[in-house]
Design brief:
This is Gas vesicle protein. The protein is an alpha+beta fold. It contains 2 helices and 4 strands. The chain is 20% helix and 37% strand. The chain has a 4-stranded antiparallel β-sheet, covered by helices on one side.
């Protein structure tokens, strides 16, 4: 039996997991949806998700966004947006909480 080979991208990314018997999304799905919805609204590319936290109202997701691309890349301006999502992962609100240079260390 031949084994199907996986691309580098497929092997680097863990498979999405659905919890059996529940309709509520998990943190990974909420993070992906929040990043995609934010990217569509603000027209900037997302760099990644730096935090996901469940709250009584739903979810808080911190999404890092490339706002101004510069050369060299270490001088590009990024921002962290706080995205609030409902219990099902739907975007409720967002706000920019921090703007920084890619090469800058956290304070």
């Amino acid at each position: 039996m031949a084994q199907k080979s996986r691309t580098r991208e497929e092997s680097a990314r863990p498979p999405a997991r659905k919890r059996p018997g529940t309709a509520a999304p998990g943190p990974g799905e909420v993070a992906r949806e929040a990043a995609a919805a934010l990217e569509e609204l603000i027209s900037h590319s997302t760099e990644g998700v730096s935090a996901v936290r469940r709250t009584e109202e739903g979810w808080d997701v911190a999404v890092d966004v490339l706002e101004v691309a510069r050369i060299p890349d270490t001088t590009s301006l990024l921002a962290t947006y706080e995205v609030k999502a409902g219990p099902r992962g739907e975007l409720l609100e967002y706000r920019r909480v921090r703007r920084y240079r890619r090469g800058a260390a956290d304070e």
